Amino acid sequence: MSDPLHEAGRAAAALEPVSRAAGPYLRGLAERPVHDRSRDALIDELDGPLPAEGEGATAAVERLLRVGTEAATHSSGPRFFHFVVGGSTPAAMAGDWTASLLDQAAGLWLTSPLAARVETIVLRWLKELFGLPASYGGVLTPSATLAHVTGLACARHWWADRHGVDVASQGLAGLPRMPVLTSGLVHVSTRKALQILGCGRDTLRTFERDDRGRVDLPAVEAALVALEGRPAVIVANLGEVNTGDSDPIADLADLAERYGAWLHVDGAFGLFAALSPRTAHLARGVERADSVTADGHKWLNVPYESGFSFVRDPAMLSRTFGSWGAAFLPDAGAGQVNYNSMGPESSRRARAFPIWATLRAYGRDGHREMVERHLDVAAHLGELVEQAPDLELLAPVQLCITCFRYRPPGVPEELLDDLNARLGAALLADGRVYAGTSTYRGMTVFRPAALNWRTTDADVEALVEVLRELGDRLAGP
Question: What is the pTM of this model?
Answer without folding.
Answer: 0.96
